Amino acid sequence: MLEMTLYGIAMPDAIMYRDDDMYVLLIPGQDEVFLTPDELLERLKGVLADCQEALPRELRALENLDAQARHLRDTACEFERQPGERWQWYVVRLEK
């Protein structure tokens, strides 16, 4: 069985983020997308739902899809959906 891999630098402590922070999501072959934390969570849940059998052990050990997506959003900044296709996301602070 092919197992997906979590990549990336560990995200800094969540206390550093503000409620008005956004994420930029980078998907190969698509334009960058700016998302709220909840919107990113929904996108991650969608991709994780499609590949449950190939998730890394770290994510499979979590009790449900919500917990998996939240853990991924809060502790990583990259996920290899399939070989050669890595989703990346970064916290950004937009000027008002």
From TrEMBL:
<protein>
    <recommendedName>
        <fullName>Chlororespiratory reduction protein 7</fullName>
    </recommendedName>
</protein>
<dbReference type="InterPro" id="IPR038150">
    <property type="entry name" value="CRR7-like_sf"/>
</dbReference>
<dbReference type="InterPro" id="IPR021954">
    <property type="entry name" value="CRR7"/>
</dbReference>
<dbReference type="Pfam" id="PF12095">
    <property type="entry name" value="CRR7"/>
</dbReference>
